[in-house]
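Support reply, case 0932

Customer input (verbatim):
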Amino acid sequence: MGKFFKQMSLVPKPLRYKLTIVFSLMSIIPLLICVYLATNFIFPKYGYTDIGSISLVIFITIIITGLGLYLAREMIESIVRMALDAKKIAGGDFEHYIKVTREDEIGELGKSINTMTQRIRDNITELKDYGEKTKEINIEINKKVMALSGLLQIGSLISTGEELQNIMDMLVDKVAHVEDSNPAVIMIVNEETNTLDPVSLLNFKFTEVAKRPVRLGHGLVGEAAVEIKDIIIDKNTKITPEIEELQKNYELKNVIILPVVLHEKCKGILLTGNRKDNHTFKKDGIELLKVFVKQATIALENDALIKKVVELEVMDELTGLYNESYIKTRLEEEIKRSIIYQRPCSFIIYKIKDFETYCSQRGRMAGESALKKISKLIAENLTPVDKAARFADDEFAIVLPERNKREAGTITEEVKKKISELVIDPKARPGLQKLSACGGISENPIDGASAAELIMKAQHRLQEAIKKD
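Our regenerated output:
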């Protein structure tokens, strides 16, 4: 029965069908008027002039008119409502939904607009997601560019022979800024104390542990150095008591520990991390940190080579005499030999008087020329077994094997006399043509049994001689 009434209803009928009915109903009114006029005035004998007939015609006319107006109003209001809804959606309210109560073309139009709006919402959501992903990609690209720039800067410092401390400071700074100013520390193996000593750290404001040495083999950090293994701690890591201790000590939730390996030996540790919840370290981020670790390795190797070169250098570039490092080593060897063969060994140290004043008046180039002439004079007054060196800027030293203090004193006075007689610059005004020197002497074993003791004693006597002059 319900299906029958639904089929008989106008609700599921097409809009064209309804408009036809409305038009038909509205057309009946003038038709009835025409019939009434014809029957009463043109063909009076067929007309109905009684009040009942007229009332019936009027009533039928009113019913038909009302029905036509109702149908027209229903369609117009539906279209107006849909136009207002469409206007809201066009204004940017894509969350608005058109309520569909009809099954004609207007209802289909409402459904179509709802479908289109849903697609727009989906597209906007997709665009937002794409925008967020693009933003994340741009952030990652910027981080990689900054990291690459940092690597180039570190490489430049290494190539120019910058001090190791400055290189490590920059390296830690770049590592810390790879991701949102993370805490970072680099530790270097101290073979004498068997510890990892922090040489540079950043963003550990309230963490004192990061500033303390770590014993090799002790804790996760010490184990990573001994076993030469990477340690990654994030949300995917099973937490153990050792990990909890590490997190507590360094006040970090997620940690990366990477060994700095040189010639298959651990020379240091890079430790960094963050305090984020549910964080996972990305593979490319870890690989980037490993590149920084390789830079640290290169810096350590370069520093070791520089130190080795310095140790191997024995000659002073300006004077051509031996340098301070060599003369100390040579003195130590001669003392050992003198102890074995029970022979004396003396050490002399000279200082050029008023050399700084001379340089300030005559210039640094004139001072260097004076040092060259004095060093040549000293070399000419030595035997083949004696060794002379430039000990400091304006100091010279001589190692005298097989010579006691008396003999060393004679040599000291002869050299001092020749220096005072040496004309440094004939063109200079009187008072600036010559220089003089003071000397201090020590002898093994009277004044000491090591190079350090003899040098200290000779310097003490040199200061006494300067005060007397």
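We compared this against your earlier run and they match. Two observations from our side: The CA atoms of residues 332 and 451 lie 5 Å apart. Residues 1-13 have pLDDT under 50 and may be disordered. Please reopen the case if you see a mismatch on your end.
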